[in-house]
Design a protein that fits this description.
By secondary structure, this protein is α/β, with parallel strands linked by helices. It has helices spanning 13-22, 44-60, 71-84, 96-101, 116-120, 122-131, 143-150, 156-167, 189-195, 206-219, 242-259; strands at residues 2-7, 28-32, 63-68, 89-90, 109-114, 137-141, 175-180, 201-204, 230-234, 237-238. The protein has eleven helices and ten strands. The strands form two sheets. Strands 4-3-1-2-9-10 form a six-stranded mixed sheet. Strands 6-5-7-8 form a four-stranded parallel sheet. α1 crosses α10. It is globular, with a radius of gyration of 18 Å. Bound molecules: D-glutamic acid. D-glutamic acid (DGL) binds at residues 7-9, 11, 37-40, 70-72, 115, 118, 146, 182-184.
């Protein structure tokens, strides 16, 4: 059986990319809700409807687990999804825990970037209340990065000025970590690194989610059945044309250049 991956758009590919490193012998479905992306600026109830209709579709493809490769969808719907479906539903969480707890320099702050909806949600505020006793976490929405990546715009000349302007209000001498709390943002990890000072760590939750999925499949005795194939869907339509598939190849290549 396959593993389903879901995101509002192409962001979840950054999670699938890391998952393929730890689970290369599985087969995957990748579902992008291209008709409704972006989720970040939309009201919660509207986004929830999109999520449930997508996950219903994915479950009908007979998958053994679903990864919600989208922080926004995880924050608005993960509990309800787990109540509704009996197979494992693996979510994303902004990597605040390692940023705040692991070897943090006591004087340094943590910048958490995500979509407006994720930053508004109770789930994130509960997490911060639990971990951030010293009030070192700052929050920044970056909707422009979702737009750029959906247009496959990874040209530094276009993206860097936006990111530079957004980050200009922070003095990075006072920071230690930038958390990428939206899966679309991982396409720009190299640009974050370029703009922040060299001591700044730029982290996302992707590999944590991949390892979590692996652990769950292992516990279910359900590992290693396939050969790393991926079937792509755009809002319920299977992608079979060359242009549609080429788009995903370009995204994997973009991630190769960041990760090499
Ligand atoms: N990729 C998504 C996330 O991780 C959401 C981006 C959007 O649709 O606004 O939050």
């Amino acid at each position: 059986m396959k593993i389903g991956f879901f995101d509002s758009g192409i962001g979840g590919i950054t999670v699938l990319y890391d998952t393929l490193k730890v689970l290369p012998n599985e087969d995957y479905i990748y579902y992008a809700d291209t008709l409704n992306v972006p989720y970040g600026p939309k009201p919660k109830d509207e986004v929830k409807k999109y999520i449930f209709s997508a996950i219903d579709f994915i479950i009908k493809q007979e998958v053994k687990a679903v990864v919600i490769a989208c922080n926004t969808a995880t924050s608005v719907a993960i509990e309800e999804l787990r109540n509704k479906y009996s197979i494992p539903i693996v979510g994303m969480e902004p990597a605040i825990k390692p940023a705040v707890e692991k070897d943090r320099d006591a004087n340094k702050r943590v910048l958490v970037t995500a979509t407006a909806l994720t930053l508004k949600e109770e789930k994130l505020h509960n997490l911060i209340a639990k971990l951030d006793n010293e009030h070192v976490v700052d929050l920044l929405p970056l909707p422009g990065l979702v737009q750029f990546s959906e247009k496959l715009e990874f040209n530094e000349e276009i993206v860097l000025p936006y990111l530079k302007e957004q980050l200009s209000k922070y003095d990075f001498n006072n920071y230690e970590t930038i958390v990428l709390g939206c899966t679309h943002f991982s396409y720009f990890k190299d640009m974050f690194r370029k703009l922040a000072l060299s001591h700044i760590k730029v982290i996302d939750g992707n590999i944590g989610t991949a390892n979590n999925l692996k652990r769950i499949l292992k516990e279910m005795n359900s590992l290693n059945e396939g050969n790393g194939s991926i079937t792509f869907y755009n809002s319920g339509f299977k992608i079979q044309d060359k242009a549609g598939l080429d788009k995903y190849n370009r995204l994997f290549k973009r991630l190769d250049t960041i990760n090499e």
